[in-house]
Amino acid sequence: MNRVTLFSICASAGFLLYILEMVRRRKLREEYSILWLFGSALILVLSLKQDWLVVLAHAVGIVYPPSFLFLVGILFILLILIHFSIAISKLHQMNKKMAQEIAMMKADPSLRGDQKPESRNKL
Questions:
Q1: pLDDT in tens, 8-44
Q2: 108 located within any domain
Q3: What are phi and psi of 29, to 5 degrees?
Q4: pTM of the model
Q5: Cα separation of 113 and 99, whole Å?
Q6: 64: left (phi over 0), alpha (psi -120 to 50) or beta
Q7: Is 89 inside any structural domain?
Q8: DSSP state of 111
Q9: Containing domain of residue 48, as a range?
């Protein structure tokens, strides 16, 4: 077993355990950890199964199989970035809608929920 293989096995196994620990401590939500877990598990499997790694690397046209591991890692990072961009876009829209609703409630006191029922009927 060469140094690159040993490093990729240790790094992917360590990363997999780190993600599981972060989910267990509730510092990372399960929905966000799925891609991380899948990516690190795939890199771990490809690191352990050298023949699969060689076949996939040559099928893609990569001469040095460990470079394929970096490609897989980069592709998973891109997927995670897209996933986070979608989540941030949704949160931005929700934040904008809430700000507009708060501004409307401040502009029209009758929309506030802090008034007594008798005072609403008098308006």
A1: 899 999 999 999 999 999 998 888 788 889 989 999 9
A2: no
A3: -75, 150
A4: 0.69
A5: 17
A6: beta
A7: no
A8: G
A9: 3-80
50-60 helix and 65-107 helix, angle to the nearest 10 degrees: 80
* Structure tokens, 79: 């997927």
Instruction: Give a yes or no: residue 105 inside a domain.
Output: no
Contacts of 104 (CB under 8 A, 6+ apart): 111
Total tally of structural domains belonging to the chain: 1
Question: What 3-state DSSP class applies to 24?
Answer: helix
Residue 19 and residue 41: Cα distance in Å, rounded? 11
Around Cβ 11, how many Cβ atoms within 10 Å?
16
Q: Which residue has the tokens 């690397």?
A: 57
Q: Is 7 contained in some domain?
A: yes
Say how far apart CA 1 and CA 16 lie, in whole Å. 21
pLDDT tens track for 94-108: 999 999 999 988 888
* Residue keyed to tokens 């929309």: 111
